[in-house]
């Protein structure tokens, strides 16, 4: 059920950052550093659980609450979504020219860099860079613009890659980065602990893949539902509040279900580090670690940047209902391919 709770929010984290104005380079850097933190936090929590075996359930429940809380606090991160501005009958024969040497002195709250499409008679000029004064939308200037027309209309979008002169020192940026980092670390640690608990509970009586498949079913369903409700309730201003509400409801159900979960007490090894050394001396373990590493590298491109690409493509082609489309993509991935492979994973493993 916890995986189900993460369906509405996990796929959207990178594009949430995009909508705050974070560039692909910065977002890629953050998501590249996070796996290093996973590498440190997973063994640390694993050791903690091994040492405090009688408190495994309390640690597990605490991580569920903490992870969901970190993601829920994104609600309070000030929005900085991409805006679009419309200008009518601009004097394009002599447009006001931005002073390039003053670009670094832009005000955080009163100016914005934009990329504009200008329509003049039958001609269209695309990708013209400029600056607008917020609150004075008839005041726009362009740089490197040479237009052969008199009067034109303009549609301008925030230039998210270059409009970051104040973002990276703002509360919005650091609150977002800290919350998604803590939440994602918690999610990855929980994945490892929940897998271990699942194996302890089912032992050899049931196929793990058939148990795990229910998580991916829930993930796909909630991702699809949240994509629809986010699109439905957003209107002109995108809001992730419906997705966060779905996450909290599923987390509450999961938490109360886990309270009743009976976790068997497993005898601790006499020497944890010796057991770890013996495990790493196993050739099959090394092969599995290599496979998991390579699979993670390949998967990261899809996990972190597929929706980013979809958002960019939708903006370019003026495609509506983007969030619903993203929900459908997750549903197709999970309710299609993943269900099949989780179900037969036990047979593949034994083969």
Automatic annotation (TrEMBL):
The protein's UniProt keywords, in alphabetical order, are: Membrane, Transmembrane, Transmembrane helix
Q: Which Pfam families match?
A: MFS_1_like
**SUPFAM superfamilies per the UniProt record, alphabetical:** MFS general substrate transporter (SSF103473)
Q: Indicate how the chain sits in the lipid bilayer.
A: Multi-pass membrane protein
Q: Is the Transmembrane keyword given for this protein?
A: yes
What coarse category fits the chief subcellular location reported for this protein? Answer: membrane
Q: Which residues cross the membrane?
A: 20-40, 60-77, 171-193, 213-234, 240-259, 279-307, 327-345
- Is-annotated flag, keyword Membrane? yes
Superkingdom of the source species: Eukaryota
Identify the InterPro entries for this entry. Answer: MFS_assoc_dom, MFS_MFSD6, MFS_trans_sf
The UniProt record lists the Major facilitator superfamily associated domain at 2-348
Where in or outside the cell it occurs: the entry states: Membrane
**GO cellular component terms, A-Z:** membrane
- Family to which the UniProt record says this protein belongs: Belongs to the major facilitator superfamily. MFSD6 family.
Xref: PANTHER family? MAJOR FACILITATOR SUPERFAMILY DOMAIN-CONTAINING PROTEIN 6-LIKE, RE36877P
The protein's name: Major facilitator superfamily associated domain-containing protein
Q: What species is given as this protein's source?
A: Photinus pyralis (Common eastern firefly)
